[in-house]
Amino acid sequence: MLIIRLQRFGRKNQPSFRLVVTEKQKSPHGKYVENLGFLDMINKKSRINKERVIYWLNNGAQVSDSAWNFLVTEKVIEGKKRNVFKKKKKKKEKEQSSASKEAKKETKESSKTKNTEEVDNPASI
What we know:
By secondary structure, this protein is an alpha+beta fold. Helices cover 38% and strands 23% of the residues.
């Protein structure tokens, strides 16, 4: 399945993005099928090949959320912007991590109490 996404390039702390068509399963930093445009965040410049974007959308390519918002602001496609945020952890993962943290705390507390008992009772030494 093909997807239209933003591919970051440029130097450290100087973000620039390419709007590319690529396979969904491939790395976002790897090879791409076609370059559809660019977005320069520092100089506030952008260029999009609108005809090719519409061509790929008609041929079934999906659009990532960030690329969707970029295409909406550039008025290539019509629609509302999508919410883009980091994914939250699942409840099961949170429960497992909290359980492991509690177990670690209990082992630390038990080792502390053993150490204090040894200090309090010099006759046991």
